[in-house]
Specification:
InterPro entries: DUF1615 (IPR011673). The protein is mainly α. The chain is about 45% helix and about 0% strand. The relative contact order is 0.18.
């Protein structure tokens, strides 16, 4: 949906840097459709290594977008 080629390492964010990785950049391209700011996206992606990520608005909205296609 974003047109950005993703790294297949499984990480949602770059843990070794504050700079956004490919997954975060791809998600940011969907920010308007998601109704979220870059900082909201980052905060929710930071939960990606826990089960609580599935309860985030980001997770739910991305799946809603995917199902709408």
């Amino acid at each position: 949906a974003s047109g950005v080629k993703l790294a297949l390492d499984g990480d949602l964010i770059r843990y070794d840097s504050k700079e956004p990785g490919k997954t975060e950049l791809a998600t940011r391209k969907l920010a308007a459709k998601l109704g979220m700011s870059d900082s909201e996206i980052r905060r929710q992606l930071e939960k990606g290594d826990s089960f609580s990520f599935e309860e985030t608005a980001l997770y739910k909205k991305v799946y809603q977008l995917a199902e709408a296609k």
